[in-house]
Amino acid sequence: MANKTTAEKLATIQKGYALEGATIELGAALIDGELHKDAPVRLPLAMMNRHGLVAGATGTGKTVTLHMMAEQLSAAGVPVFLADIKGDLSGLATAAAGSEKLLARTQSIGQDWHGKTFPVEFLALGGDGNGIPVRATVTSFGPILLSRIMELNDTQESSLQLVFYFADKNGLELIDLKDLRAVIQFLTSDEGKDELEQLGGLSKATAGVILRELVTLEAQGLEKFFGEPEFDTAELLRTAPDGRGVVTCLELPTLQNKPMLFSTFLMWLLADLFEDLPEAGDLDKPKLVFFLDEAHLLFNGASKAFLDAITSTVRLIRSKGVGIFFVTQTPKDVPADVLGQLANRVQHALRAFTPEDAKALKATVSTFPLSDYDLEETLTSAGIGEAVITVMNDKGAPTPVALTRLRAPESVMGPSDEALVRSTVAGSALLEKYGTAVDNPSAYEKLTGKTAAPTGPAASGAPSGTPVSSGTSAEADVDAEARRIEEEILGRPSSRPSRNSSGRDGAPERAGTAPAPRAPRAPEPQRQSQPGGGIMGDLGGVLGGALGGGLKSMARSVGTQLGRELLRGMFGTSSRRRRR
């Protein structure tokens, strides 16, 4: 290493980064203290689904680096997801103004710089910010991710999985936190004690602990993050009319108050993408690049089940055309099993002020290939906007390590004007779809016998506040339940005539007229279950009786199948789209 001349080092880097195909331009190499714009450092677009790491001490330029990469990905037609921790990334929607200092820097590295805007979609977790609200149902979020937010131990997490199993098996839709609370309250009540015993492994005491943690979440205001309409992660894969990839910025203005929720929600987005996307193999460019900022929050205090699921997701999602870049301070923030899968490395400067810092520095150096640099010295002396880089080349081998002066973004390095953000959100096609929360009938209504009051344009049935007839005839109740299940199975309004409270047939509803809201019957877990088991099996029996004895067996079979449709992914997640 010490015997190589500057020219030899330069030739090594030039040869190592002479790549074929489309690339992301990262900057120009610094060798022996000199900048060489004839030695560009770049990353093959086709290798961005091999995942990566952007690391470095606070203030060294990590956010600007992912900003610059996002711009080029968008220009290449690749959608990008960014977690906007500090609000700076909204500047992608505003063209930057070139200064004399900026132009001098860009010219020195061979960058042809022009101020540009990029297509940006602004989201906000649960509407906590200016962006379009992002929500998930409790059912799709799943027990493993929810346990992470509630900070449950392994035993409690296993117990929560049993609660989800019970709800799935019995057709109890867990849409928001009150639904999950209702299911747990039912299982711990005298009425539900038989069901609790049948679950096995779920003690009443543990269920009580979970219930208390759930109430704590509600007290912290986290109920607004769970509900409908649920965000469809396919929205992250869109391109603009001009072919550029849409950059989705998720606002996180209160991250410091909810760090666990933030990191876990990002993992839900990834898990949902993983479950929904088909296998794609090796592509010329990824379908999506996902920048996961403050990655250490994802792993702090994580259970083994959670870590195993992250590792598997990172390993397997590559074949679905999705690239993940973890953004954090040091590589040691990322578990070894995950770090080993991050082929593309952009390492900004590290500090060595304490013995712990020095230890982290040595560990970081050990993760790089052998190079012509003294990496311990280089990593502690690199300036702002400089980084040590090695990536996977177009043949699947690591490129030479290169200290690089990075390109400058062409949009504003800072927040866009708030009025621009608001106008962008107001003009978004997603606002009508996700802007208003709805409350459709689910587990809470089924278990309490109350009628849900759907709200917003996505709600089903009649408007909130519509009077509900409380018929007293058991025959009318059975008929109403049969009509509801028939509509659910066939996907169209029931053709059966309605029955009034005295049990007499009424006139059939006119085509195109929405049926009046009905109060869902509370399940009766203590009655003898029909073959097929659980509430869905019982409902199948109700449907069979209402439609005629000859159809009873078929109807019960359909009811059982509905109860078995819910399949959960490796995080215990389940998309409602996959259940349709």
From TrEMBL:
Top-level taxon of the source organism: Bacteria
Annotated Helicase HerA-like C-terminal domain residues: 36-459
One Pfam family linked to the record: HerA_C
UniProt-listed InterPro entries: HerA_C (IPR033186), P-loop_NTPase (IPR027417), T4SS_component (IPR051162)
Annotated transmembrane regions: none
Signal peptide bounds: none
Classification via Gene3D superfamilies: P-loop containing nucleotide triphosphate hydrolases
Chain intervals with Low complexity compositional bias: 449-474, 491-516
Biased composition, class Basic and acidic residues, residue ranges: 480-490
Region (Disordered): 448-539
UniProt-recorded name of the protein: Helicase HerA-like C-terminal domain-containing protein
Source organism of the structure: Pseudarthrobacter chlorophenolicus (strain ATCC 700700 / DSM 12829 / CIP 107037 / JCM 12360 / KCTC 9906 / NCIMB 13794 / A6)
